[in-house]
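Sequence only, no structure available. Ideas?
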Amino acid sequence: MTSASETLDDVLFEFHQVADPISPELLNVWTSRYPQFADEIRAHAVEIMDMELLASTQAAAAARPLVGETVTLRAALQEAGTSLRDFADRLDISRSVVSDINSGRIDPATIPKRFARLGAAQIDRAMDWFESIVRSSRETAPTPAFKAKAAPSTGRQRTWEEAIRSSDMDEDRRSFWLSDEG
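Reply:
I predicted one. Tokens follow.
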């Protein structure tokens, strides 16, 4: 059943075609069938579920105008016709860093002007407007049902430098995002 010539892209595309709904059983079948791609299949499944959950919980919010509201980076990017993922890819910065900015896990006071300038240019918006979005973005994921008495906290915000240094970017990209603009 498994062809030696199947690439990761082929497998993920096929998984995406049949992955409705995603379940532990489905993941077990696919990771057993393609053990060499097991981590990628699991990551893709999580991404699909995350996107579906956010789409369903934010459908009403996306229909409202952004003016006068506290806006997340995700909502601002959606309004500009892009996603967090595509935005990060176009800026050539780790997706985890952009996701952490969106959720408020990076201290906005430590985010450099370079990110604001390049980010604003990417979506053709004013830098001041983009900076205000970055400073106020605090998107929280819907809290799943669990037995704890309180929802988990977000913990301490990281600095820009901590986020960049712990990212999956290569050293050249880390250096670019950590350097002074000069």
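The chain is about 55% helix and 0% strand.
Hope that gets you unstuck.
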